[in-house]
Amino acid sequence: MAQDALSEFIARMHELKDLGGAIGILSWDQETYMPAKGGEPRAHQLATMQGLYHERLIAPALGEAIAALEQRPSLGAEQRAMVRNVRWERDRAVKVPSRLVVELAEEQSRAVEAWRGARVRRDFSAFRPHLEVLIRLRREQADALGHAGERYDALLEGYEPSMRVERLAPLLERLREKLVPLVKAIVDTGRKPANPFAGRRFDPAKQWEFTLRLMRDLGFDLEAGRQDRSTHPFTGGAGHPLDVRLTTRLEADDPLSGFMSTIHECGHGLYEQGFPLEQGRTSLAQAPSFGLHESQSRFWENLVGRSRPFWAHYLPILRSLFPQELAGVEPEAFDAWLNRVEPSLIRVEADEVTYNLHILVRFELELALMRGQLQAADLPEAWNERMRTFLGLTPSDDSVGVMQDIHWAWGEFGYFPTYAIGNLYSAMLLSRLEQEVPGVWEAIGRGELKVVLDWLRARIHRQGYLLPAEDLVEQVTGSRLCEAPFMDYLWKKYRPLYGLR
Amino acid sequence: MAQDALSEFIARMHELKDLGGAIGILSWDQETYMPAKGGEPRAHQLATMQGLYHERLIAPALGEAIAALEQRPSLGAEQRAMVRNVRWERDRAVKVPSRLVVELAEEQSRAVEAWRGARVRRDFSAFRPHLEVLIRLRREQADALGHAGERYDALLEGYEPSMRVERLAPLLERLREKLVPLVKAIVDTGRKPANPFAGRRFDPAKQWEFTLRLMRDLGFDLEAGRQDRSTHPFTGGAGHPLDVRLTTRLEADDPLSGFMSTIHECGHGLYEQGFPLEQGRTSLAQAPSFGLHESQSRFWENLVGRSRPFWAHYLPILRSLFPQELAGVEPEAFDAWLNRVEPSLIRVEADEVTYNLHILVRFELELALMRGQLQAADLPEAWNERMRTFLGLTPSDDSVGVMQDIHWAWGEFGYFPTYAIGNLYSAMLLSRLEQEVPGVWEAIGRGELKVVLDWLRARIHRQGYLLPAEDLVEQVTGSRLCEAPFMDYLWKKYRPLYGLR
């Protein structure tokens, strides 16, 4: 065994990666091309595949190979990182008793079902009992995973390895304290940009052509990936840089919805296509955290895709595709609409200024739930109270309040903060990019997006999961996760847009 | 164990079925939507999945459960059939040493690669060494599988369980003796129908609409399956009646190519959608043999889809879609072209009269190879000699002769006869259908295809793999596999078409 531990480890890592890739394609198919009645056999196939993945992940032989390699000083940096990544995933799988895994999976199915019905009927009481069970099970799971007193850490870590509440909570609180006045200042201007597309129709077939052009221009390799349409846009595929798949959703009366969705998912997709190709079947070909993955989609969607230089280049192109539909739409009106800020009830429709406040509502509630300071029954009131304080709004009912997201019905507590972390990382990276490539905005204005991708590829994408997310960002920017670059970015952008002081 | 053998067996059968379904979707995706560069990771994913399938199939616990159930007289007919089917597949997997499985897989990859190049360069000598290895390995495999002196039986059985050379060879020889004079009689008439579509173009988008209409009319449930386009049409999917996927290929200058391809694959697809739904995750939800599967595609494509009543209904519909393109095309000319008989070099382009002669060339050669009566080096000459005798043609070179099919490069010996068996079964079934449903052709002429599907569903599809293929056909028609109904069908159809005596 000793001398074969490395080849044993690599063969098993490859097998896990292959299984994960197969699951990825089955899941993608489920959302794109699977016929309506195919859901039942697909659920069985996925459950069987996930069971096999879990079985192979917790196999004692893999654990032994990992333990042997951890004693071997001769391993290179890449091999050490591979071992660390698989060890981390395996430890989390081993620690949770299979009885709990099954209970969670079963309750998730029931809860999602109940959530759908309860949301339509605006009846939180029908969802509450399921939420109670999920909270109990996830607390149990957190205790099984282990933590140093803060239960939430064990869940957060599943999405954002080595992030801790101890550091995240004060950081997000500072962010909140800085965002609330900015939102208020914007609201107080009373400016409400008009929708320049109102009453106009944009042929989805032509929208589709434009999204494909955007993908190509951004640097997405359409021979190593594809775009399709689905109800909810996502990025998936074979978990390999040579097969990355994204989806978008086009709406005839709201062209920006599809364009921004394509740019967002393309940001995820460019990251995955940029993972080290020669390590495509290893644990290096993945993002070190959900937050860093999200930083890439938001970097392209918000920082680049909502910028003036970007549309200085693309608005004329769009105008040549939709000459009548865009007649009379001036760049200023386009920009004002694209970047309008307005406190709203629904997270997925929020602008980049208010978005993080939606995350903060959820983060504070999740933390209180896991600490046992809050019960499921108290959620609607606690939710509405925070919406009032952070955004000055009160949901008319729970379907546009505490029940708006599917995440809690999946039992996903600890996931939401990664959206905010992604926003903060993206601004840290932009600030560094501006320093290292002084003419970057002029290049973007000329449609030369390659300078941006090249920089991200070299600094972030090609690194894969060699370093933990925050170490990698520090290596690139010289700083740990912080809110300052994000707030600087917002003020710099929204001060002129809304005429703030 | 004893009292749990049934649940153990069923759980393992379900798992195998789920894995097989996942492999089916991955393979379908590979031919339809996978991006060009995705082939490398996909090959790894499929190899891993197939390895897992094999591992689970040969698991001792499955063997023990089967052995225990075979001792249990209380099992119902369906359960006994499930056990028999899995036992059969498992025995074949267990008997072949894994060393040989790996050698075969590796040599298949190399041989397909060599075949592609050799075929382009028309150089059999570059393919020959690989063919020699494959012949040797397949002979070894046959001996490992076991047989009673006729090595070919062990391979044939892999596609057509319980069929034997002893019975098949004389049957196919009789078929050849009857076909050769029919072909000669047709050729001697000197009639060569003109192509009524020459110089006309049929918009593929409209062809596509028509193929979907055909599918719906034939009874294909588009909520439990779909059609896509691929280079080589095939039927695949999740191996479950609720998710069946077919592909077609459309050519602007040859509309019948796509229509007949859709009808052919739809015949396969209707069979799979008709498997017993409540047994969808069991070994009953499959065809008992490749020949019976093929009988369904050929039944619809040739017996129904090339009939006068069928086009009496559809030609007017097609004409309303393509009024200009079909201007002046009379039903007689359409029918004559659709059913033209002409000896040709290429099997996949052959008509239903000469098709089986192409199969006979291959069957006789495969048999001689497995018996050791023929060497790979002698194949081109032996091939050309038979083409002269059976069809009166001599290939100009081996690319349109012995190297035209990919099957031998895959090492598939024993597969070709199932095409002929399918043709014979289809005519046996038609003959019986005509007896049981006297007005069937009038119904087809009115576009009422449901009577045909209902009959096939009740007699064949819903049976799944409850009985071996020939037992099922005998149950339906009262007869074992024979050539008479097929020859009757051909003479009845082609006598008037070609004015034969």
Note the total helix count of chain A. Answer: 20
CATH C-level label of the domain at 204-344 and 425-467 in chain A: Mainly Alpha
Low-confidence stretches of chain A: none
Number of strands of chain A: 3
Radius of gyration of chain A, in Å, reads 23 Å
Helix fraction of chain A, binned, reads 55-70%
Instruction: Name the CATH architecture of the domain at 204-344 and 425-467 in chain A.
Output: Orthogonal Bundle
User: What's the helix-strand series of chain A?
Assistant: HHHHHHHHHEEEHHHHHHHHHHH
Largest interface by Cβ-Cβ < 8 Å: A-B, 37 and 37 residues
* Order of strands across the main sheet of chain A: 1-3-2
Biggest sheet of chain A: strands, sense, closure? 3 strands, mixed
Based on the structure, what is the oligomeric state of the protein chains?
Answer: homodimer
Which percent range describes the beta-strand content of chain A? under 5%
